[in-house]
Specification:
alpha/beta; 2 domains; D-Maltodextrin-Binding Protein, domain 2; 17 helices; binds spermidine
């Protein structure tokens, strides 16, 4: 090979290396089934920042990464209860509000609630919020439990007599003790936010009584399982169940899925965008969060995933089947039926984790 060609190849290689070194990226770790991917493409086209997008379906998994450090993520989306513990552990950096031009779009009604987990909302900003309730296949549940099936009650799942009958068509519940224990406490008439180990221990008998009738403990598979008619009941997250409803309608497979907020009370939660302390690209993280905070972008996201968001001006751009659905944007009456919870202290958390392992293994 001639010297000139060798030099030319070397120069090209150096240029390519420089281009790679300069490529702007943002590494995002979000919940599964939680964004319209067109939003990511539009962000990339507008900013030139490439989005590396990974998903999870468990706060516990995210927390393990945040507490260990070195995750490589720039933007993550913990739920408020977990966020508060992670802020205390020093896992997040304060947001630079001067850079977040769209921060003023935050809805004060939601910010008042999220301040319970992130005082002054200094470390996080709301992405979506929602409730945890019952998704059900209308036809199957009516067939097995009759017209008076208690589809708006925790008894649909927690009463062993109902669970036994519904086992025939399949029940999934979340693999999330911080969701399931408050629900079981509510069923027992106890405070869902109880931190008393003796009170929490009462839920073990409730779970063990229905354990043989639960097909799966999983926090994302229920969307397709409900939509395909593979299961008939899921205790899961509001928007996920509404996405299952739409997937079934699109498939035109005769499956009718509905979501109900249990009359005994349901958990209201808040998923918050935050930047890890050791994020490799904090500037790009701010650019990403600021883009998401645009009202048109937030509206597009909510219209796609059927979750409410914490962005006030986006509400004018929401589809009527989102802003007008009280299962997504609860009215005053529905709000009265919702509760929030706070994080477990480490000692109680260990009790909860052990209890949940026994429940899942049935031992
Ligand atoms: N598919 C997205 C589900 C988002 C659920 N967020 C977790 C809420 C925890 N309470």
């Amino acid at each position: 090979m001639k010297l000139g060609s060798i030099l030319g190849a070397a120069a090209l290689a150096a240029l390519a290396t420089a281009a790679i070194a300069q490529e702007k990226v943002v590494n995002v770790y979000n919940w599964s089934d939680y964004i319209d991917e067109a939003i990511l493409e539009e962000f990339e086209a507008e900013t030139g920042i490439k989005v590396n997008y990974d998903v999870f379906d468990s706060n516990e998994l995210l927390e393990t990464k945040m507490l260990a450090g070195g995750s490589g993520y720039d933007v993550v989306v913990p739920t408020g209860t977990f966020l508060s513990r992670q802020i205390q552990a020093g896992a997040f950096r304060k947001l630079d509000m001067d850079v977040l031009e769209n921060e003023g779009n935050a809805w004060d009604t939601i910010q008042e609630r999220t301040a319970k987990y992130d005082p002054d909302n200094a470390y996080s900003i709301n992405y979506m919020w929602g409730t945890t309730g019952i998704g059900y296949n209308v036809g199957k549940v009516t067939e097995l439990l009759g017209e008076d099936a208690p589809v708006d009650s925790l008894a649909l799942i927690f009463d062993p007599a109902n669970a036994e009958k519904l086992a025939e068509c399949g029940i999934h519940v979340l693999d999330a003790p911080t969701e399931m224990i408050p629900a079981a406490l509510t069923y027992l008439g106890e405070d869902p936010d109880s931190k008393d180990p003796e009170v929490i221990a009462k839920t073990e008998a409730v779970f063990m009584a229905i354990r043989p009738h639960i097909q799966k403990f999983h926090s994302s598979e229920y969307i397709n399982a409900l939509a395909n008619g593979d299961i008939c009941v899921a205790f899961g997250w509001s928007g996920d169940i509404l996405q299952a409803r739409d997937r079934a309608a699109e498939a035109d497979n005769g499956v009718e899925v509905e979501y109900s907020i249990p009359k005994e009370g349901a958990l209201m939660w808040f998923d918050q965008m935050a930047i890890p302390t050791d994020a490799p690209n904090p500037e790009n993280a701010h650019a990403f969060i600021d883009y998401i905070l645009r009202p048109d972008v937030m509206a597009k996201a909510s219209n796609y995933v059927y979750y409410a968001n914490g962005n006030l001006p986006s509400q004018e751009m929401l589809n009527e089947d989102v802003i007008g659905d009280t299962a997504i944007y609860p009215d005053e009456g529905t709000l009265e039926n919702l509760y929030t919870v706070t994080a477990y202290a480490p000692r109680v958390n260990r009790t909860v984790t052990r209890l949940w392992t026994r429940v899942k293994t049935g031992q």
